[in-house]
Amino acid sequence: MPKGLLYDSTMCIGCRLCEKGCAEHHKMPYDEVIASEEKLSAHKLTAITTHGDKFMRRLCMNCLDPTCVSVCPVAALQKSTNGPVTYDASRCMGCRYCMFACPFQVPTYQWNSRLPVVKKCDMCADRVAAGLQTACAEACPTGATKFGEREDLIAEARQRIASNPGQYNQHIYGIEEVGGTSVLLLAAAPFDQLGVRASLPITPMPLLTWRALSEIPSIVTVCGMLLGGIWWLSHRREEVQAAERKEREEKS
Amino acid sequence: MTQVRRWPRLTFWQAVFFLIVAAGLYATYVRIVYGLGGATHLNDQFPWGIWIGFDILCGVGLAAGGFTLAATVHIFNIERYKPILRPAILTAFLGYLLVILALMYDLGRPYRVWHPLVMWNPHSVMFEVGWCVTLYTTVLALEFAPIVLERFHLVRALKVMRIVLIPLVILGVILSTLHQSSLGSLYLIVPEKLYPLWYTSLLPVFFFISALCAGLAMTIFESWHSSRAFGKQLELSLISSMGRLLAVLLSVYMTMRFLDLLHRGALVLLTPRRPETYLFLLEIALFVVPMVLLFRRKVYTSAPALYGCAVMVLFGFVANRLNITVTGMEAGSGTSYFPKWTEIAVTLFIVALGFAIFRFAVKYLPIFEDVAEAGHRGRARLSTKRAGSMVPAD
Question: Most A CBs within 10 Å: which of B51, B124, B176, B179, as the mutation test of the A interface?
Fold first, then answer.
């Protein structure tokens, strides 16, 4: 069963222990300066953002049908069956199409490195594969970030809204967005007020390019036959003319 | 005046050329040593800049004259276009080589540029783009090869080339069609980021048609310039009919763009006072004005007027590609982008290299040979030119 994460903004106290746990697990530096940066970067794979008295968490949504996986020309990005979207730096040539295409603007780049790699949250793929929960969920003291089966988390989110309808925005973000994401978000306010892109289509993005890509075989066949045919016609006319001229000359 | 003469004589354009090369080499150093962050204004929100938008998208589009003319001459068998086929193939070949060079600047790890050839992901448009660039550059090299073989009188190799020419040209047209349109398909994945004046599911089709327009305009452009630089007679009847074809293509393109905006209900976007609106209108004007002009007899029978229209179309084409890559992407990415000087220096460097290599190739290879034999005046002028060069005229 695919795993997931449920982040409940109403339970978040902004302590940033998820950021710290994430940095520790990924062996990245973490200090007060980094803590104060409220955006994702190559040295910060998850970030708590403040919106008045409310919080929101930014991390890779680990989509069910990920845009980045479909656009990567070298298949460096892969979707695991148990949820995480992983990145293999040894394949990456640095075209940055994943960053360009990601609807959540999640992948980041080591801009000042001579041999840069893409950085993004991988939902602690190694821990999840070992049967553990993600580092951020483990670090969260309030349960605002919860790890579990995606199905169970959806049920729990529905139940939280049902038992406390006044406290929540009725929408569970991530059930349908771009075909569904492993990370689910709950909040009190509308999501666009919390810096989350609220108007994403519910169809998976890879379909948009696949529709064009699947035309390739027919373009090749039709184009090839058309051009071959035109070539044959245009040169045949010449051959016929030459043959007729020859015939006439022989007669006279 | 006497002071200046002591130095080797430098024309204005040569001076500009050396300045650009110097700036370009320094920018290259910055790119290698300080990485993409030191050499560009790109960031996590805006990962693609003018190296993609201009160097690659425009470079490929402007090379479209190559496959268009190859098809015209070899497939449609319209022989009278033969004199301008070779310069068009040269432009396309050069264009693709320079696109690959630009890619070396833009890729984070350029030494892995071959990865898509062995690590496949057929679901990726970029994968298709990578294969198209590789295969079509090979095809262009082969289409260009006879010119070099002729120069060195390699008769046997030439015979082999003649046999494979037609399949090669057909393959070239197919690959170009795929490649030109796939550059548009790259942007299909960002419906929520690309401004709706430009985002449409027809992007691949529009990229293809506009590339045909740019290819024709480029052919007119270089016919004019080479006739001036190499003192050969301009084939007015040829560029005139190309100008008329361009007018038809432009009107098809503009009609489709209009209908697309209409059906998507995007025409209302022409009213807000936003930079996107103005730059969109500028782009459209650069297509519509030459389109209207090129339908007029006075225009398509006059070489300077044709040249002016071709230049406008080229600017329109560049405006379109930059609008899609920069103007239309800023608001949706929640950031603004203006290229750093190093990005501009590398771009100018690559363009300057293109001009220099073109001149060099035309001087030492039989690019305009067919034309020289066609007209006495052309031949006389061309041979004096070649006699002046280091290679003896044959």
Answer: B124
CB contact under 8 A, A105 and B112: no
Q: Are residues A149 and A191 in the same domain?
A: yes
Domain architecture of chain B: domains with CATH: 16-221+231-388 (1.20.1630.10)
Domain presence at residue A210: no
How far is Cα A237 from Cα B221, in angstroms, rounded to an integer?
33
Q: Do B188 and A208 touch (CB under 8 A)?
A: yes
Same domain? For A129 and A65 the reply is yes
Domain that holds residue A243: 215-251
Helix (H) or strand (E) segment spanning residue A87: strand A85-87
Which pLDDT tens digit goes with each residue over B145-190? 999 998 898 989 899 888 899 999 999 999 999 999 999 999 999 9
Please name the residues in contact with B27: beta carbons below 8 A apart, sequence gap of 6 or more. Answer: B39, B341, B342, B343, B345, B346, B349
Could you report the predicted ipTM of this complex, rounded to two decimals?
0.91
Q: Are residues A24 and A83 in the same domain?
A: yes
Q: Are residues A189 and A219 in the same domain?
A: no
The predicted-structure confidence for B336-387, as pLDDT tens digits, reads as follows 999 999 999 999 999 999 999 998 998 888 887 654 444 433 333 434 344 3
At B310, which amino acid appears? A
B126:A116 CB<8 A: no
